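Budget justification note: compute hours in this period were largely spent on complex prediction jobs such as the one shown. Inputs:
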Amino acid sequence: MISLAHYLGGLFLGWSLGTNDSANVFGTAVSSRMVGYRTAVVLAALFVVLGAILQGEAGIHTLSQDLRRDTGAAADLLSESDLRLQRERARTRAIVVSYAAAGTVTFMSLLKMPVSASQAVVGAIVGADLLRGQVDYGGLGKVVACWLGTPVGGIFFTFLFYYAFRSLLRRWSPSLFTYDPTITVLLIVSGCYGAYALGANNVASVSAVFVGDGMLTTRQAAAYGGLAIAFGILTYSKPVMMTIGTGIVPLDSFTAFVVVLAHAVTVHIYALIGVPVSTSQAVVGSLIGIGIIKGAHTINYQRLGGVIMAWMAAPLIAAFMAWTALFVVRMLRG
Amino acid sequence: MFAFGKNKQLMAMLDQYLNVASETMDLYSDTFGYLLKNGFDRRFEVLVQKTKQSESNADDMLRQIKMEAYSKSLLPETREDILTIIEVIDQVPSKGRRITIMFSAQRTRPPDAFDKEFIELLRLTRESFDWLVQATRSCLGMSTGSIQDLARKIDNDESLGDRLERDMISRIFATDAPVGEKLLQRDIVEKCGSLIDMCERAMDRVMILKIKRHI
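Corresponding output:
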């Protein structure tokens, strides 16, 4: 029963991540009608699974080892029954964290707000730890650092790519019959790259816990997490896509391409240096970069304020949900 | 690569359409010029029919382009912009055809006293339409040429045409002709003059597309 709840929790978390974060890779292309919604979700789902399977294992391995260390630190000093009790508690905690984070991200998807699933997970872990009185404040510091660092990375790469590609295009000066298919191909390729990076980076948040628990192998967990994210992309990713594509800054074909590429490179570079970051925060940073280039008046500040509020609210909501759920579980168990 | 090939086909169709539209405007000029010189006769009716046929061919091509444009790999915004420009351009030969049919059906000849002015108006119209076609080709990447320069030239022609039109209307109303006759003559002048205004409006659309696509 607990195992089923555990698997469903992972599926729910993967699904919610797919509904929210996938919007970032094709949101600008879909909302500006450069790529069809159906094409975009199929490609995003496919490349998320590929990214999860081909490059997600390293993240799962690292995270699952951390989880094993947490639960197994005092294993030698405990009796068999105490060890079983500790493992059951850890599993319950993991289930609660999954549901709390997934519920938060789903709620934000319903509000059409892009948020960070990994930060919702961190928020839920902090909420659960608060009840135990064992909070790792280092995790909180990381969340705040990512809130600032990821959008700045997005803005930086947007400036870099915007001026580099503009200079190239001005020299080339193609006719619109050549330019249109070229920019569409570039948008699709950069979107697929973004989806691949999303799968590689975020699958660990969804399914590393199963490896830590000994329920799945690393490869199985990568496939399970990737498929769960793909399921979210295929079923309910349009609302957040529209927020990303049209809500913050109006985009044309060229700026849409720059945004997708800049956010994908930002996420990939952070992953390479070992910091898992939010694709939502990277893409919003890129959109702000376009807003700065085109003129501050082009930015929809009301919508941007809403997005930033959602970023801050997501970990807090997840923490509250996890704390409450664990409290109820404790009360029920006496 | 397939997408690039499909777009080349659409580009060829647009080029062909612009040629047919230019031919229609040539026929409009010939028909009008012939009427001013020779009046109503069989040859005039043949020219009216030729203008009508050429414009009808242009319309058929326009319909084909609209259908083709949706199956090609153009961005939706580009597709809408191109179709809008072509539709606005198409209004010029359409109006030219309607004017020749009006002369043929009503048997109303432009006033004799203004032959020189009408010939000049026809020249300005033909010239403006040529520049509009050149600018469209340049904007779509089929040829090179400064769109701004062409827009300036059309603007000059439009001012000259307006001045001619105002002058002709003032002179019409200064005559002792019956009021009905004066109104009929003014209508002819306004209809002929409107073609240059239409060229200028179409040119504005071309300029907007050019500005929108400037990176």
